[in-house]
Amino acid sequence: MRLHRPVSICTDKAPTYRKVIREINHDYDPHFNSVTHIGRKYLNNRIESEHAALKRLLGYRQIFRSLRSAQATLAGIETKRTLKRDHIHNKQPRVKGEIAFMHQLFQEAA
């Protein structure tokens, strides 16, 4: 049971949600549309948001020929994302620091 009135509901753009949101609005207050519908697919949750950027980067038709190539590609993308978000301790500043870190990281892996 909800203890408070929802302000907005994030869903994909399926037309069936309009009816449900109308019913929710009617249950709370029939004269006022208090709940708004946000029809953006990837705002729904953080996991969807995270892999949406990856899907955009790889393309929807990206097919890997082996699991090993998929793992290597995704590991490289996640490493680059980690660098850009500054989730690394003792990183040297700017692009030179990123290059040095990547070189060190992949040299250790090889």
Give a quick summary of the entry:
This protein has 110 residues and is mostly helical. The protein has helices spanning 16-28, 46-58, 67-84, 94-109; strands at residues 8-10, 36-38. A two-stranded parallel ribbon has the order 1-2.
List the topology elements.
Layout: E1 8-10, H1 16-28, E2 36-38, H2 46-58, H3 67-84, H4 94-109
Parallel strand pairs: 1-2
Count of separate structural domains = 2
Poorly predicted regions: none
- Approximately how much helix is present in the residues? 40-55%
Q: Sheet with the most strands?
A: 2 strands, parallel
Q: Classify the beta-strand content into a percent band.
A: 5-15%
Q: Name the overall outline.
A: elongated
Protein name: Transposase
Pfam family, one: DDE_Tnp_IS240
Keywords: Plasmid
Domain DDE: 4-87
What does this protein look like?
Residues 4-87 form the DDE domain. This is Transposase. Keywords: Plasmid. With 110 residues, the protein is mainly alpha-helical. Strand 1 (8-10), helix 1 and strand 2 (36-38) form a beta-alpha-beta unit. It has a two-stranded parallel sheet. It starts with 7 loop residues before the first strand and ends with a helix. It has 4 helices and 2 strands, in the order βαβααα. The chain has helices spanning 16-28, 46-58, 67-84, 94-109, and strands at 8-10, 36-38.
